Amino acid sequence: MLSACFAEERALYLVMMEGDPVSFLGSSQAHKDGRHADIKAHARRLGQSHDQLLKSSLETGSYSKLYSFKHIVNGFAVHTTPSQAKKLKYAPGVKMVERDRGARLMTTYTPKFLGLREGVWTEEGGDLRNAGEGIVIGFVDTGINPTHPSFAYDPLNPFTSNVSHFSGACETGPQFPLSSCNEKIVSARFFSAGAQAIATLNTSVDFLSPFDAVGHGSHVASIAAGNAEVPVVVNGFFYGRASGMAPSARIAMYKAIYPTVGTLTDVVSAIDQAIVDGVDILSLSIGPDEPPEDSPTFLNIFDIAMLFARRAGVFVVQAAGNQGPGPSSVVSYSPWAVGVAASSTDRSYPGSLLLGNGQKLGGVGLSGPSFGGGLFLHKLVLAKDAVKTNGTFPRTPPYIEECQHPEAFDPDIVQRRIVICTFSAGFFNGTSTLTAIIDTAKTLRFMGFVLVANPTFGNFIAEPVPFDIPGILIPNVASAQVIFQYYEQQTYRDVKGVVSRFTARASIGEGRVACFKHQAPTVSRFSSRGPDYIDGRRNPTDVLKPDILAPGHQVWAAWSPISASDPILTGYHFGLLSGTSMATPHVAGTAALIKQYNPSWTPSMIASAIATTATKHDNNGELIKAEGSAISSLYPSNPFDFGSGLLSPKLALHPGLVFFSGFEDYISFLCSLPDIDPVMIKSATGHQCNHSLSHPANLNVPSITISLLIGSQLVQRTVKNVESKAETYLCSVQPPNGTIVNLTPSWFTIDPQGTQDLYIQFNVTKVMGEFSFGEIVLTGSLNHVVRIPLSVLPASVSKR
Question: Which ranges carry the Peptidase S8/S53 domain (predicted)?
C-alpha cells in the first residue's frame, strides 16, 4: 500500500545501446549487392535485443517501449519510472540513458533579397532547372498542408530528375489521404508514440497523420522548397509571389511535433527514419526545450543523432534558437550541424495613424485603411471611457483597457468609432491577445482599433499581423503619449470625470504596402547568440555558433488554415512569421542548390562553401548590426551574432576553396575536449578515443574559435580547391584585439582538387577578459574570396 501512495510518475527516456546500427553496415551498398535481406535481419535482431533487455531488466508492467532506433543509432525509447530508468543505466550493453527534455518549435521576397532569381536559378541558362532538381529535403516538424499550392505538382511540367536514391512512404490518416503525396511531396510520415505516452491528445487538432494543424511545418517546407511564383493573397490583398529557395527540390515530411506536445522521443525516431529513407538535406526548425542535464552539450542523444546523420552523408541544418539577445543562448552546439541565426531583410510594412490635429504617427499592422481610405477622420474613443457604468464584470485591465471582452463596453459609444486599447498587465503576462481585440472589434462594429503602449510597462515589440479589420499597433511609449495628450485635449468630461463629448478624431492608414528602404540585414533581437558552450554551466568551447545568418524576420510562406497554436492566423493560407525556424530552411534550400550543382560534395564541403562566401556587410556597405535588448537599439555585430555572415547562395556555388571534415575527425574533436571522459565518448558514439586532436580548435572547419588562449597556440587548417583551374591565393589576417596572428604560408598556388595546409600561430599580447574577433581572408587570382572568422579569448600572455 505504501508504494501505491507514493507511485512514481512515468517519463520518457532515450536509451543508447552497444552494437552497430544498420547504417554501420553500409546499407546503401548492401542494397546494391543484394544484401537487403541481411540488413532487414540485422534490424530485426536489434529490435529483439531491445525487447529482451527490457524484459530482463525491468519489472513487468512498469514500462512501455515506444520505438526501437536501428538505423543511425542502436537504441530505443521507453516510457517508465525514474527508478526503473536507473536500473537501465546499469544493465548490460547500455551505453547511455537520457530523460526526454521535450521539443519545441524554434517566402515572397527573400529569394530576391539573397540574389537567387538573378543568379543561382538561371546559372547555365536554365530557368528552374538549377533550383534543386533531384534533391530531397527532409523536414522534422509539425507536418504539412498537402492542399497548399506551394506543394502542388503540375503533370504538364514534370520534374526532369528522378529521386531513385530515396525510398520514403506516404502514411495516411485524418486530413491526409494517399493522394496527398505527389511528385512534389514524395514522402510523409508521422511519429506520435512519445506524444501519446505523456499527454492526452486532442483529436480535433492532434491529427495522427502527417497533416499540419499548426502551420509551422508547412511554413518552413515552403521556404526551403515551395513551388515558384505562388500568389500570396491574404484577406483579399495581394502581397506578391512566394518561391522556395530550391523550388524544384522534393519534400519529405516527418511529423513529430503536435499542437498539444512535442517530445525528443518522436523527433529522434523521425530523424532515424529520414536517414534510412535517404534524404539529402535534413532541416530541423525544432530542438530540445533545454540543454542536457548530465552530459556535455555535444553528447546528448539529439546531437548524437545529428552526428550519425552527418556520417550517413546528410547535410544537417538546425535553428540556433530564439532566446536572444543574451550571450550563450544558442541551442545549436555541435560542429557537425549548421546552426542558423535570423536576420531582417530591407522590407517592412509601415502603418500609420493620422490624428485630427495633423500629426501622423508610425505603427505596425497589416490591415487596410479605415473607411475613407485613411483620409476621412473618425471619432476616437479610449477604451476605459466606453466601459459600461453598471456592468457586473471585473474592473481589471483586460476588461477596461485591453478590449478583451465585448460585454464590458457600451455599444453606442464604440460602434463605428476607432477605439484605443492599451497594452497593460494582461498583455504583459501573456493572458491577453490581439485575437480577442479583433473579436471585440467585430462584435461591436468598431471602425478600427489602436493598441498603444502603456508607460507603466514601457515599449513593446510589435510584429505585423494580418488584420481583417482596420487596426494598428503603436508600440512606442512616446508615440502613445502623443495620442493620449491629443485625446485628452479633445475630450470633454463632467465633474466626475465621465466623458460628455468626444471630439478627438483619427484615421488608420494603409498598412499592407511594403517599403524597401531599411538598412539590412540586421541580426534579429530574438536570434540566439554565442559563444557556444560545452556544459550546463555555460563554459565556452572551441566551436563557433551560430554558423551562418539567414533571413528569419517577417517571412511570408505557406500556412495551415486550422492554425491550432496561433488563433490570429486561423483561416489563412499564408503566414508572415519570424524566428530562427524561418532562417533555417533558407540554408536547407541553399544546400539543395549546392548539392545539385556539386553532387559529389560531402556535407562538410557544402557547409564550408556556405560559410566562407557569406558577407559581413549590409546594404549600406557597413558591418552588419544586431538588435539589442532595448527596442530599436542596434550595435555592431560579431561572429557570435551572425556566425560567418549573411548567406550568399550565388557565391556558395563557386567557393574556390573548401574545408572538409568527416566522422572520424568529429570523434577526434570530441576526444580532444578538456576534461572529457573517454568512456562517455565511447558510450555516446560507440568509438574509442584512439586519436585526438592536439587542440579542439584544430577541427578542420571554416572558422577558428579559441575559448581560452594562454600564451600561444598553433592551429592548423587544410583547404581543397574545388574549382576546375589552378589558382594563386594571397593570405591576409586581421588579428583579434590582444593577439598577434601569423599565417603560413603567406601565399600559395593550388591545383584543381589539390589541398593546402595552413598554419596559424596565435600569440597573446594583452589579456582582454572577453572574446575579441578577427578574420583571415584568402584572396584568389580568379576572384574567389575565402573568409575565416576568428574568435579568441586572450587569457594570459604566457603559459602557466
Answer: 132-621
Residue 577 three-state SS: strand
Q: What is the CA radius of gyration of the chain?
A: 28
Domains (range + CATH), the chain: 2-99 (3.30.70), 103-347+517-655 (3.40.50.200), 350-508 (3.50.30.30), 662-691 (no CATH), 700-796 (2.60.40.2310)
Residue partners of 500: CB distance under 8 A and separation at least 6: 492, 493, 494
* Cα(387)–Cα(75) distance, integer angstroms: 61
Tell me which residue has cell 483529436: 203
CB atoms within 10 A of CB 550: 33
205/201 Cα distance (integer angstroms) = 8
**Residues belonging to the active site:** 141, 216, 581
The DSSP code for 384 is: G
Q: Let me know: does 241 contact 117? Beta carbons within 8 Å.
A: no
Q: Are the beta carbons of 761 and 676 closer than 8 angstroms?
A: no
Q: What is the pLDDT of residues 155-212, one digit of tens each?
A: 888 888 889 999 999 999 999 999 999 999 999 999 999 999 999 999 999 999 999 9
Average pLDDT on 740-751 reads 98
Q: What's this model's pTM, rounded to 2 decimal places?
A: 0.93
pLDDT of res. 28:
42
Average pLDDT over residues 126-142: 84
358: left (phi over 0), alpha (psi -120 to 50) or beta: left
